[in-house]
Design goal:
single chain, six-stranded mixed β-sheet, five-stranded antiparallel β-sheet, 12 helices, elongated
Length: 422
Amino acid sequence: MKRRPPLIALVLLVFAVLIASIKASDREELTPYLERARALVTDPRLTTAFAHVDREKERILREWIAITEINAPSGKERERAEFIKKLLSGYKLDQIYFDRTGNLVAVRKGTGDGPTVVIDAHLDTVFQEGLKIKAEIRDGRVYAPGIGDDTRNIEAMLAAIRALDAAGIKTKGDLIFLFTVEEETALRGAREFIKDNKERIGYYIALDGGYEGFTYGGIGIKWFRHHLIGPGGHTRSRTPPYSATLPLARAIARIYELPLPSDPPTHLNIGMLSGSEVVNAKAADAWFTVDLRSTSNDVIADLERKIAAIIAEEAARVGMQSRTELLSDTPAAQIPRLRQSPMVLTAEAVHLAMGFENPPITPTASNNANAALLAGLPAISTGAAPCGDAHALTEWCEIEPIYKGIKKVIALAVALAQLDEK
């Protein structure tokens, strides 16, 4: 057997000891939170709430589907919200109201001396107005546009409130169940609610995406509409000048060749484009959108510069002009040391206590948690069921896991707002 030189062996040994000490430190940091979480999920009051979820499985599925089949495009959520408000009116809540932005707010007051916890699911979808939605169940899944994003989490909130009531659970802190508008477009509902209520919020949970794990940081999101401007003309008119779609196509091809780092996580999408209004016209204004996302604001800025340079070059190549509109700008929200904070350690402990092994925990939220994090509030995002094909007509969710997901929501809410022992 070939022997390692003594110095190399010593370095490897020191490295192994260092890694082991880091892991041990992590475990020590988490241990008290895990002990409390395990005690909480086996508390008779929590097990009573969990049993109530199990007894309500048929109602939960039926209600989940009913909410999903009410289409709610961003900015036009009121019909769905009114349906949910009617359901909430039969629960033991202290306040139910629409705020100035159109968010539906339901408050379950605590007994005092505990942090206020906001639990948020958004009402809106990405689908066009007038879409007729009909859910279909097959092979243990439910299929419908919007079934996962975000009605699974709306239903999880409703079922959690009922279970808390049935078990007679009281928390020290207030629980605010927030059904937000316009998440899909600009996080407007969450932003405005936080602006009006920041001082009273202790923790913010955005139920949107995820299932086995959660996020604790917000990915930066920047949306643009880039225009290529030319003289236009008829198909049979002299060429050049070309249709503005030519530099558009060349620019898009080059943009998609830009390398994207995987660390920090970075994404780019060109989702919309347009040219002329008729087949036989050269486009005078051809445009496309760019969606940039990264946990690093510096990476977003670098890609923004590179894309601007490409567009300018392709416009100049054919003697045209370019123009850019900024549609939305949500900076990356990374709060220092939030990963080691009581909220995140509590959330990790709850996931482990609920049987989620090695839960993925990342700083990559792309939802209403971003709005809270940007306001400096401790926030996480997670979800109540595993789903797929988000934002597509083929969207689906697995049915059976949502019942465990609802129990996780209950445990998170109670762990953070603190169980009243009186």
